[in-house]
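Re: export button greyed out
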Amino acid sequence: MFGELWESFTDALEGLGSVVHFLYRLVVNTPRVLLRFSLISQQVFNSGALSLVIIMLSGLFVGMVLGLQGFQLLQRFGSAESLGTAATIGLVKELGPVVTALLFAGRAGTALASELGLMRATDQLSAMEMMAVDPIQRVVVPRFLGGVIAMPLLAAIFSVIGIYGAQLVGVQIMGVDSGSFWSQMRHAVSLTDVTEGIAKSFAFGVACSLIAVYQGYYATPTAEGVGRATTSTVVTSAVVILFLDYLITAAFL
Amino acid sequence: MGPSGTGKTTLLRLITGQVSADSGDIQVAGQDMRVLSRSELYVLRRRMGMLFQNGALLTDFSVFENVAFPLREHTDLTERLIRQLVLTKLQAVGLRGAAELMPAELSGGMSRRVALARAIVMDPELLIYDEPFVGLDPISLGVILRLIRRLNDTLGITSIVVSHDVQEISTVADQVFLLSGGKVVAGGTPQELKTNPTEIVKQFIGGLPDGPVPFHFPAADYFSELMSRSEDL
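Workaround output, generated via the alternate export path:
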């Protein structure tokens, strides 16, 4: 019993160690990849632009729900005008980064992991090695950086659309005063709140992209292995996102 | 040549530096593979071309871009020159007309020919083929065979072909080495190998089902295993 526990503990530690080592390899190779920015911008498009629709739709709906729930709650205390503040802080600090990251893991993370896994399974990565092209530099780092760049942008878009969603429900439907919705928001939301949101989405971007490329790059080169890599990308990302969320929130208190 | 699981592919990987040897030394083009740094290894690899079993074409790129890939990565040639080089190599494998196709649209034999064009685009001194005949129809097989021989002769390069097809190898090879159980058991021209009296060589060349490589996977004694009472019955 304790033996098994100890074993799974050391296994987890070993896994963490190899992820960190992988991250180190990515970072070491980053400067050279930055010189070929077209490779990265292609990946920002793949991870970012192709996730736009799902991010915008989700942002709108999350914002609308916030508008509805927030209005009901705030009205009990007679402060429905603070709806703008409440919704914005909720979105910028918490829901924007977290929901975006979860969607990103499901949409772009799985695509990255299965793409890399398939490249491994069909010998494409070995073929690159044999052509004296480092697959880490040519394939993995651009995808990693693409994700890191795309995530904060997506989170910002999510939050902005969410705020408009809250405004749509709160002001247009529930009848909160438009002037107080916006002006209270501008007074109460501080730069620290925005910084916290940006820090979170940046951290989530690093985590999600790292998990996805790591799972794909080291996938067992079979159909089953690639499937498993995709699944564990989503599962691991979700847990890590929520854990990091707590840590960063605590750090900003 | 050698039976499956005898270490042929491992030997190739050792030669190309994809795995490193636990003991012994490997000399490629006069360089000791064990002491090469990563960047020295990459410099050496530019002088090698390798054809993978299934071609290993990059699925995001067209046939043209696949062949152009090493040029774009390693050289600063003009677009015009790249185009000319790629088209010449594609012409050599007979697929200039397929330049704009995607790898998914190619048959097995065609992908291998494209991969071959890609392997020779940097003008290597050493070409390595990993099981190039597996799963090809007779026509594609004939094409690949002819290409291996012709590229070898016209480009003046060294070719290493790993295979277990006795017939094909005897038509194309100058020197054959037979591997078994991780060791070289025989070597010589295809003709010499045919007359080699060793049991394992005879079994392999003749395709005999039983011999030094046994038909039966090692197991407990047949009779006693059949007669024994298993606990869970």
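Residues 47 and 123 of chain B are 7 Å apart (CA to CA). The button fix ships in the next patch.
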